[in-house]
Prior knowledge:
The chain is of the alpha/beta class. It is built from 19 helices and 15 strands.
Amino acid sequence: MTDTVKYVLDESKLPKRWYNIMADLPSAPPAVLHPGTKQPVGPDDLAPLFPMALIAQEVSTEREIDIPEPVREIYRQWRPSPLYRARRLEKALQTPAKIYYKYEGVSPSGSHKPNTAVAQAFYNKEAGVKKITTETGAGQWGSSLAFAGALFGIEIKVYMVRVSYDQKPYRRALMETYGAKCVPSPSMETNSGRAILEKRKDHPGSLGIAISEAVEVAATHEDTKYALGSVLNHVLMHQTIVGQETMAQLEMAGDYPDVLIGCTGGGSNFAGLVFPFLGAQLRGGKKVRVVAVEPSACPSLTRGKYAYDFGDTAHLTPLVKMHTLGSTFTPPGFHAGGLRYHGMAPLVSFCKELGLLEAVAYHQRPCFDAGVQFARVEGILPAPEANHAIRAAIDEALRCKAEGRSRVIVFNLSGHGHFDMQAYLDYFANKLLDQDYDQQELATALAGLPSVAKAA
Length: 456
Ligand SMILES: *Cc1c(COP(=O)(O)O)cnc(C)c1O
């Protein structure tokens, strides 16, 4: 038995291509529909929002897509990221299971999100785009795109959910340090924002509203495009470097996962870890159990409906088929800001329909219990989102102990929590509530799902 706890890949092993699971799925996922006509969208419909190279990736069925060298050059600053064997956690749990975690907190902004932010900024720069708009909740995505925009000389404008803008000034300060402009949403700058503020002046905002504002600005300005930090096919694809590296690192360790675990907000860090393994399985390789972990307060995969829905509140985005709580659903307050989205990535949703993965939901307090336990043995302070994955990994390891059998458990530690210390303070002060979503609110939001003809 080796005492190695850290598996470091040589720079020369940095993946050269992103992996596209579309090539290996047994059937094609449902089409993306135009919000007005409800007919399948073509590349031209998306052109006001995204550069053509990203639209091509969004609909591509090629198994592998070359990562441009300038993008790999930037990845090299923190990639390949380390894979750790959590020996001290295993010992604390007295489990026969082997626990590994891939650590994405080593990036400049502290999460997996720069993996796609850098790629998206590159393709926008290539297309001559001067300005990119986006939304952010807690600020992880906004700060990642701000970092990428700074590297490529693109102006970044971030619509930040107002309640986070007011309560979480440090992420905003990071965005501004990178040179981005940050506006609290809903704002008076857009029709979508003004319409909301007319009804309620002190509206706290939501991701769905912030997306509407960012999309509206991109759609109405020639030199401006929009970027999304999760959910879309190309975003999930950019994250697959995480799983590809993990595969190579587990090979160094002489192991293959029995169980893969990731937290799911829009689904990108989860898909980034698991899609390369699911692809290998779909091509006849070893079967692996795949577990998506979501918050009980915003449970799209476990309680949502698999249906066509809008990505935003003002209904400006195309319709995608996904597990959704309804585009008007507002989750109760909880601390994993990155997990507050009403829908799940269409590709992750489709894989769930195909039976390729399972989903569980946890309340936030047991997740923080797990995150604190993890920090005290492994030293890394996890993002509140990642605590969900840790909770599930620990529970799996405890099941192994109860059943007296070993398993190889691998989870994605999607980011560190250094900007989320208020959440930890609240946890220690016993102020974290385990709220359930409002049943009535969910019923109303689901009743408002758009109707789409069967043929679509
Ligand atoms: C944004 C974020 C998430 C949730 O987004 P996904 O697209 O589901 O990965 C999870 N963890 C961290 C650290 C994040 O910043």
